[in-house]
Design goal:
Length: 584
């Protein structure tokens, strides 16, 4: 009991993660040693005496910390368990929200104050894990899947443990819709459609809008840096309708070539432009507002993949001016299995209901099913007519908590912190001899605002090998093509390693990554792999086919868009499992 009270101190790094045992179970020798040390420390600090006097109440919080009120996902204040029961109070009841620290208070802190990442790490239980012989887990794969704060996992658990109440479930979904709308500054919660993820959201646009508005001979503009989920649905649409696909190439500094885009625009023929806000490999923020202006002048719609921007920076759909925006919950501190599509109400109302069934109609009768009758008169208003079937109630509630958590931190604050991390990550990795870093440097105009995401290669060392050896040291990164095979072909490589940080990471995490990476490269060098110095750029338009692994040859940036090698089909994209088998 005393240990529980001690560990419930707000901000304590070792907050309990598992359920409290109702019956005695003999702990392991390691656990007994930890308990003995903890008891000794507690006794020395006088906490045992304090706890006995206060009948088990937790020690007082540090000055300036605030205890949040426990709330259920639907916003109702959670009931405390009866006295003497075995039920444990929600961890959230004693958790300190980093968002309770105002900007003014943060400015008054000394330079020795912990970073934002350090301040909120206690909210993420997985970061206390150890893997591979008690090595602390260092998670650097958030561009693929982010970790969940306790409020998110508690929302999932709360739904599974409470009784099934249709009205409460509906209220939870609509409350989550409001949270998402608030995060992206939508005009109305009705502009938010819940989906299984960004992939389904993009398919919804391609099917529900594209099939109605794209005809034979029309054109669709994409870019070579798109995620497969923002390529294949448009390819399928072009095949169905007989439309033509066009691709924006990269500039010399590996950014979106706006001049190439202007040349591809065909007023009257270009129907839709699909692009990402931030590349999941190059990291740069793309010129969305300029693309939107030019596209609208040509009469085209713009569909934005915002999976790498909504979690990391302020996104205002009113300012961007896009026609469609999609994102995935699992990349923004939320659960898997849910994402959303945003579009103005009039645009959603113009879309076809590409999936029908329960939840999409006001009512069904035999008369409405008779020959010659239309289904449109019976459909519910948007967004509900676009959400066929049982809604993802638990996932929606958890996504709402994730949005609330991010809004509490402040997206400007999150972005500024990640830009700082990104600059530090670039500077530290660039110290490694021969390393290739992809995307524009953060100290250039093209790289302005790029976050803490960086793909890289080391000559002579396969990215999968790097990821494997880093994994053995507890460092989880991503390797492979990251579901961007066309982009890697444009870069002249078969794959890359990628470190992607989030708001819960710190500069100390980057230091550990670099130290571990250097140790790994030293191992490869001792074994005769890799190169001592950076090789010159090859004077050929494609890698030497005699090389064992042409995908690892460095690209020559002044040769785009010549023929480039096929990317490896190793299924190691962003939808593959994380680098560390124990990190998830």
């Amino acid at each position: 009991k005393i240990l529980q009270n001690h560990y419930f101190r707000a901000g304590h790094k070792k907050a309990p993660m598992g359920p409290v045992l109702h019956h005695w179970a003999r702990p392991s020798p390691k656990a007994r040693r930890r308990r003995t040390c903890a008891l000794a420390a507690l006794f020395a600090a006088g906490i045992i005496a304090l706890a006995s006097k206060s009948k088990g109440s937790p020690p007082p919080l540090r000055q300036g910390l605030v205890v949040s009120t426990p709330r259920a996902p639907g916003g109702v204040v959670a009931r405390r368990p009866p006295a003497g029961s075995h039920a444990r109070l929600p961890l959230r009841s004693t958790r300190v929200h980093a968002s309770t620290i105002t900007a003014e208070e943060e400015e008054e802190r000394s330079s020795a104050a912990p970073s934002l990442g350090r301040a909120i790490q206690a909210d993420f239980p997985i970061l206390d894990q150890t893997v591979h012989d008690d090595k602390p887990l260092l998670y650097l794969d958030s561009a693929a899947t982010s970790q969940n704060p306790r409020v998110v996992t508690q929302a999932l658990r709360a739904f599974s443990e409470r009784s099934s109440d249709p009205e409460a479930a509906r209220a939870s979904c609509e409350a989550a819709r409001e949270e998402v709308a608030g995060l992206i500054h939508a005009s109305s919660p009705r502009e938010v459609v819940f989906t299984r993820g960004a992939t389904e959201a993009i398919n919804m646009v391609a099917r529900g809008w594209g099939d109605l508005h794209v005809s034979e001979g029309d054109e669709i503009i994409l870019s070579v840096m798109e995620h497969h989920s923002n390529l294949v649905p448009w390819q399928a649409l072009a095949e169905r309708k007989g439309a033509k696909l066009k691709f924006v190439t990269l500039t010399q500094d590996q950014t979106y070539d706006i001049e190439a885009f202007k040349a591809l625009l065909n007023p009257g023929k270009t129907k839709i432009v699909a692009m990402n806000h931030v590349s999941n490999v190059l990291g740069a923020v793309n010129p969305v507002e300029e693309v939107v202006r030019l596209a609208h002048e040509a009469g085209a719609k713009v569909a934005l993949d915002a999976c790498q921007s909504v979690p990391h920076m302020p996104v205002d759909v009113q300012t961007l001016g896009v026609d469609f925006l999609s994102a995935s919950g699992h990349k923004m501190l939320g659960p898997t299995g849910i994402g959303f599509l945003w579009a103005p109400l009039e645009t959603l109302e113009s879309m076809d209901t590409w999936q029908t069934g329960a939840g999409t109609t006001e009512g069904v009768s035999l008369a409405s099913l008779a020959d010659g009758a239309t289904i449109s008169k019976d459909l519910r208003p948007v967004p509900w007519r676009l959400e066929a079937g049982q809604p993802p109630i638990a996932e929606a509630a958890a996504l709402g908590e994730a949005c609330r958590y991010l809004r509490g931190l402040g997206m400007e604050r999150v972005h500024d912190y990640e830009v700082e991390l990104g600059g530090y990550l670039w500077s530290k990795l660039s110290e490694i001899k021969g390393i290739s870093l992809y995307g524009p440097a953060p100290d250039t105009e093209a790289g302005k605002g790029r976050g803490a995401l960086l793909a890289f290669n080391v000559p002579g060392v396969h990215s999968n090998d790097l990821a494997f050896f880093l994994d053995q040291e507890g460092v989880a990164i991503r390797s492979g093509h990251h579901c961007t095979q066309p982009l890697h072909r444009a870069l002249g490589v078969g794959g890359s390693a990628r470190a992607s940080l989030y708001v819960y990471n710190t500069k100390e995490d980057i230091d550990r990554l670099v130290v571990t990476l250097k140790r790994t490269l030293k191992l490869f060098s001792d074994l005769g792999f890799g190169v001592e110095e950076e090789p010159p750029c090859p004077l050929v338009s494609k890698p030497d086919p005699t090389l064992r692994d042409p995908g690892m040859q460095r690209p020559c940036t002044d040769l785009w868009p010549h023929e480039l090698p096929e990317a490896e089909d190793d299924r190691s994209g962003d939808d593959a499992p994380a680098a560390s088998s124990e990190a998830r």
